[in-house]
Amino acid sequence: MIFHEKSQPAPECLTTEKAKANGNNSCGDVLRRLQVDFKNKCYICEDKDPHSINTEHFIPHRGDRELKFDWNNLFYACVHCNSTKSDDYDNILNCTIESDGVDKKIKYWINPFPKEEAKIIALDLDDRVVNTVALLNAVYNGSTTLKKIEAANLRSKLLKEIRNFQQLLFDYYNDLYNEAEKAEIKGQILRELRPSSNFTAFKIWILKENPDLLVDFQ
Predict the structure, then answer these.
(1) What does DSSP say about strands 119-122 and 74-78: parallel, antiparallel, or unpaired?
(2) What percent of the chain has pLDDT over 90?
(3) Which end of the chain has less neighbouring CB within 10 Å, N or C?
């Protein structure tokens, strides 16, 4: 998870749909706005360009129409994460509130080897941080047989991204490249650290774990 700023104001159609008996909270440009706000990434796992998406309720609405049609409660999630979260995690960090620090209060790590599980570590013992870590562990590592398979597929994508990012770092510090080539490689590295990149939080933590890298790519 990383911070994403939610666009305002809310799509006008949500007010209209809320007044209907069977209103649709994916009306008008809602999905397109969510896609843009969350950089076409699942807000939980950070998988970019997910094949299947849901309009996800950050706080489960449980029949509450205010929550069901509240723009600030509508998020962009892949089916794997939405079904994992379900109604079981309703007291977690909000990635659209910068002060919640989703990329500062949690450490994201995976060793770039086959069969490795993701390591999601709480750096704060606040209940919301702990609950968010529990959700992320369920997403990346799975619990049931089905979810373990889905999580393994997700980690395969994650590991490919991490290996490619590490190769860019190795190339940047390789003396075989001249300054112009290194500048181009640095540009590629910085692009990988943008909020729109796949699995940005994991890439950021590679730098956070190495003070020298952090200085060069601050």
Answers:
(1) unpaired
(2) 89
(3) C
Residue with structure tokens 């079904």?
Answer: 83
Can you read off the two tokens belonging to residue 133?
A: 């870590």
> How far is the CA of 27 from the CAs of 15, 93, 196, 214, in angstroms?
10, 26, 24, 43
For the chain, what is the HEC assignment?
Answer: CCCCCCCCCCCCHHHHHHCCCCCCCCCCCHHHHHHHHCCCECCCCCCECCCCEEEEECCCCCCCHHHHCCHHHEEEEEHHHHHHHCCCCCCCCCCCCHHHCCCCCEEEECCCCCCCCCEEEECCCCHHHHHHHHHHHHHHHCCCHHHHHHHHHHHHHHHHHHHHHHHHHHHHCCCCCCHHHHHHHHHHHHHHCCCCCCCHHHHHHHHHCCHHHHHHCC
- CA pair distance 70, 60, nearest whole angstrom: 11
Average pLDDT over the chain reads: 94
The candidate with the shortest Cα–Cα distance to 96, out of 168, 15, 2, is: 2
Torsion, Cα 172 182 2 162, to 10 degrees, reads -40
Judge contact between 49 and 40, C-beta under 8 A.
yes
How high is the pLDDT of residue 35?
97
Residue 92's pLDDT is: 97
Cβ contacts of 125 within 8 Å, gap of 6 or more: none
